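I hope you will forgive my troubling you with a question about protein structure. Could you please explain, in whatever detail you think fit, how the structure tokens follow from the sequence? Thank you for your consideration; the sequence and its tokens are set out here.
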Amino acid sequence: MDLKEFIKYFESLTTAKQEFCNKATDHQQQINADRAPVRRWNDAVVAVQVEKIWQEVVEQLYNNIKNTITNDQDANEWHQRMEAEDFMDEVDDSIRGIQLDGEED
């Protein structure tokens, strides 16, 4: 399974993307507010940056899972790994727990 296939499949299973993107958007807007007015990003640029952060998180997950799969070209093996009991719950909880720079609970 290549990265594009993984992203599509993973996003069909995850429940954490929207919450993560909301958190990342808030974080980017906070950073943006600290910029000089002429250097502030518009909402479209903020959205692009949030999507970029999401892609980085998913790519890191892809690489971590890829290291645990014997035949990374076998989509069934990927599906079995990701559909294993509690796997997606643990991944979603981990994604929800990601701290963005300077963020406090």
Observations:
- Residues 28 and 46 are 6 Å apart (CA to CA).
